[in-house]
Amino acid sequence: MEKKILVTGGAGFIGSRLIKDLVRNKSCKLYSLDNYFTGKPENHIRGVTYIRGDCRDVERLIDFSPDIVYHFGEYSRVATSFEDYQKVWSYNVAGTHKILEFCKKNRCRLIYSASSTKFGDSGKNKDCSPYAFHKAQNTDLINNYGKWFGLDYIICYFYNVYGAGQISEGKYATVIGIFERQSTEGAPLTVVSPGTQRRDFTHIDDIVCALKILQQAPAGDGYCIGTNKSYDIIQVAKMFGDNVVYLDRRPGERFTTDINLNKMHSLNWTSKINLEEYIKNFKENKK
Predict the structure, then answer these.
(1) Which pLDDT band holds residue 287 (cuts at 50, 70, 90)?
(2) pLDDT tens across 239-253, in order?
(3) In whole angstroms, what separates CA 135 from the centre of its chain?
(4) Backbone angle region of 60, left / alpha / beta, with phi > 0 → left and psi within -120 to 50 → alpha
(5) Angle, CA of 95, 216 and 27, to the nearest 5°
């Protein structure tokens, strides 16, 4: 029987890479729902049905019952969430509530990408930005949907995903994307002060592998997808070069990252790609 899979944010970095892998399975029918806030039409993949629209309108836009809904269609930046609060509320509160109701009604398995920011600074960081606050609230809400309504759900956590297709310019660019672009252009490597913020980085291929495994995982929370090897941001910048300049400290910044890989390891998943090797290969290929 054909399996129908809906990916919200399917034209974005992570969603499009997942779809690119899943579409190889001819027993799956892939659909994307994206409002193209950061998603791009050039990320479209042949054989996938693309639906332009907002998650708040999922009931109107999706006229079938998916077997699985991967929900990536949210706002996903800490520092800019203060100035973009209306977008955060619209995408991460109103939109996600509609997705939950849709999954409850259609009895879909929901695979939700929560934010590892709530684990930062020993859990003290979850209220430090609009983004972190609402993402943490969503995990509580989804857990309760499981208790109240029997929702079949998986909550997983990403840790600074990088790799081909990442956003490298503009205010929504990722750390590794920014450093790659600046290194290529010969520009100074910009590090937010003080530079001692520690982060775990996970390659997109490792993320996609984990997300496929989660289709069959026991329902519940706590699936952290990371490497358990963290770096100071200044360490990462200096892997690219020595021309570093510091930017002013930003609101909502966290300084430590916490991760528990037990649940993913119980599924026989471990990360395969090392950040240092990735950067080394990037620099060699740039020559």
Answers:
(1) low
(2) 999 999 999 998 888
(3) 12
(4) alpha
(5) 85
With vertex at residue 240, the alpha carbon angle to CA 77 and CA 129, rounded to the nearest 5 degrees, is: 15
Query: What is the C-alpha separation between 139 and 135, in angstroms, rounded?
Result: 7
Reference 282, options 231, 249, 228, 236; nearest CA is 236
pTM to 2 decimal places: 0.95
Domain regions of the chain by residue span? 3-286
d(CA 177, CA 13): 12
What sign for the dihedral angle of Cα 87, 89, 93, 95?
negative
**Three-state secondary structure of 234-256:** HHHHHHHCCCEEEECCCCCCCCC
Pairing mode of beta strands 68-71, 49-52:
unpaired
The separation between CA 186 and the C-alpha centre of its own chain, rounded to angstroms, equals 29
Enumerate residues 6+ apart whose C-beta is below 8 A from 247. Answer: 190, 191, 192, 193
For domain 3-286, give the fold: Rossmann fold (3.40.50)
Separation between Cα atoms, residue 250 and residue 212, nearest integer Å: 35
* CA 72 to chain centroid: 7
Helix, strand, or coil (residue 203): strand
Instruction: Give the whole-angstrom CA distance, residue 127 versus residue 136.
Output: 8
With CA atoms as reference, report the closest residue to 76 among 21, 120, 14. Answer: 14
Structure tokens at 233: 């941001």
Q: Which of 67, 55, 64 is nearest to 10 (CA)?
A: 55
User: What are the two backbone dihedrals, phi and then psi, of residue 242, each rounded to the nearest 5 degrees?
Assistant: -100, -10
The structure tokens 């039409």 sit at 41
Tens-place pLDDT, residues 180-189: 999 999 999 9
The burial of 285, by beta-carbon neighbours within 10 Å (0-12 exposed, 13-18 middle, 19 or more buried), is given as exposed
